[in-house]
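Let us walk through a complete example step by step. Step one is to write down the protein sequence. Step two is to encode the small molecule, S-adenosylmethionine, as a SMILES string so that its atoms and bonds are unambiguous. Step three, shown after the inputs, is the structure prediction itself.
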Amino acid sequence: MARCAADRDDVAHPDAAVTPDPFTDREYHKTAPVPATGRPSIYEFRQPKRDWLKYMFEHYIVLPRAGRVLDAGCGPGAYIPAARDVAPGAVLIALDIAAGRLAHIDRAKAVRVAADVTALPLLDCSIDVVLAMHMLYHVPHVPDAVAEFHRVLRGGGVLYAFTNSERSQSQLTELYERHGGGSGSAMGDPHFSNESGRALLETSFSDVTLTELRDSELVVTDPECVVDEFQRLRYALEPHLVEGTAWDDFVDATRSDVTAMVERDGTFRISECHGLFVCRRP
Ligand SMILES: C[S@@+](CC[C@H](N)C(=O)[O-])C[C@H]1O[C@@H](n2cnc3c(N)ncnc32)[C@H](O)[C@@H]1O
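Step three: the predicted structure of the complex.
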């Protein structure tokens, strides 16, 4: 079997410097902790209540019990424990451009690699499954990453690319637009979405299918949690407020609006629509 860079220990130390990337910087801001509020994030209000990562592996993502699985753009490694459970004999490779993220990942569960998905330090045809979960929309030129995934997958290997519909969370987009947001597209990234993903994946893969997952929603009972979410997205939203709208005014108006809805209906419901692309290499 071809040797893979990941047969060795981590190919780059998580503290190693990696190429600066504006999309990663943007991602850092997106996931930097908002000032501690003690409140749950809106995602903790997701219904139905279930272990979503386990559910994905039980229903949609097939991992080989042994073999090599690349979690590309793994972040702090949310998928790693569930992947380890379903693929106990597999080599799991946790790869991210932001080296600091990898420090959160248990080295006993996965090999950690600091690298850019557009230049993977892996041999041709060396990987059985690539996971690219909610990450391709951060890559400036997506076809470069897709070509790399195709190169490292063996014949019969599969790429799973998870993303969102541009219509997901439309209730948040409506709030943003109602209270001063100039462009709703600031809320959702069309760079790699359910709508735009197929054409980007077909630049390398001829067998691409999309499954839309629409059976979840965020049923939020605390208006402040919705405000917290806008605060978390401030880096992306504030630059697109219409001229003359101050961030604090936007926040106050949004708080009043959501509070009124929760008083009236008991909850503020945010619909979700995820998309899982499955790309098979012949
Ligand atoms: C939204 S997070 C998703 C993390 C994880 N896959 C999950 O679903 O929980 C996107 C991750 O992609 C990483 N990323 C962005 N551009 C990348 C690139 N060119 N190469 C490797 N990782 C990248 C970011 O650093 C970030 O950790």
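Step four is interpretation. Residues 21, 23-24, 27, 73-75, 78, 96-98, 101, 116-118, 133-135, 138-139 surround S-adenosylmethionine (CB under 6 Å).
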